[in-house]
């Protein structure tokens, strides 16, 4: 099994928007619970986790942008599940959710955890949203939390900026 980074970061005093797609609710509910548990385990208060439901994975980027620009959250965690069907709709939604969420993080400068499953079957999606370390909601929340700390370290005030070397 693939494993994410082992390093854990503190979430105490941080606020998170947990955006959940309403499609494939049984899968997404597990992702939300995984994200919530990971953040609370890291020190976040449940009151600092705001869960917002959007219609589907396609709508996650716009909601993420609104949350990021609101100034109310230190990070956003986008949670959804796109399961392959009989048409190519799956590819379009999966691609747009991924590229849209990536663009939001770059544009807003706020970490966005990518917890959108793209699976061939519902059984695979359920396995990735079950309780435990393999839960992709857990991974997305931990990644967003880690990026809060990375960005703070990169932009910490009081550090002297190095002058670029000239040729």
Low-confidence stretches: none
Strand runs, count: 4
**What is the number of independent domains?**
1
Sheet bearing the most strands, described?
A: 4 strands, parallel
Category by helix and strand content: alpha/beta
Give the overall silhouette: globular
Describe the structure.
- The protein has 5 helices and 4 strands, in the order βαβαβαβαα.
- The chain has about 170 residues and is α/β, with parallel strands linked by helices.
- It has a single domain (about 15-155), classed as Lumazine/riboflavin synthase (Rossmann fold, 3-Layer(aba) Sandwich).
- The protein has a 4-stranded parallel beta sheet with strand order 2-1-3-4, sandwiched between helices.
- Helix 3 (about 90-110) links the parallel strand 3 (about 75-85) and strand 4.
- The radius of gyration is 17 Å and the shape is globular.
Considering the chains and any ligands shown, give keywords for the structure:
globular; 4-stranded parallel β-sheet; 167 residues
Brief synopsis:
The chain is 44% helix and 17% strand.
What is the fold's blueprint, element by element?
Layout: E1 16-21, H1 25-41, E2 49-54, H2 60-69, E3 75-83, H3 89-108, E4 112-119, H4 122-128, H5 136-155
Parallel strand pairs: 1-2, 1-3, 3-4
Helix pairs in contact: 1-4, 1-5, 2-3
């Amino acid at each position: 099994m693939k494993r994410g980074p082992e390093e854990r970061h503190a979430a105490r005093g941080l606020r998170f928007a947990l955006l959940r797609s309403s499609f494939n609710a049984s899968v997404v509910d597990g992702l939300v619970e995984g994200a919530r548990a990971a953040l609370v385990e890291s020190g976040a208060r449940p009151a600092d986790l705001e869960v917002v439901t959007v219609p589907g994975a396609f709508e996650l980027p716009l909601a993420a942008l609104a949350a990021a620009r609101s100034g109310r959250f230190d990070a956003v965690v986008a949670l959804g599940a796109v399961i392959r069907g009989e048409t190519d709709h799956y590819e379009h939604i999966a691609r747009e959710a991924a590229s849209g969420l990536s663009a939001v993080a770059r544009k807003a400068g706020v970490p966005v955890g990518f917890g959108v499953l793209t699976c061939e079957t519902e059984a695979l999606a359920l396995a990735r949203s079950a309780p435990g370390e393999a839960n992709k909601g857990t991974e997305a929340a931990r990644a967003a939390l880690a990026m809060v700390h990375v960005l703070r370290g990169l932009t910490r005030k009081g550090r002297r900026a190095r002058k670029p070397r000239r040729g």
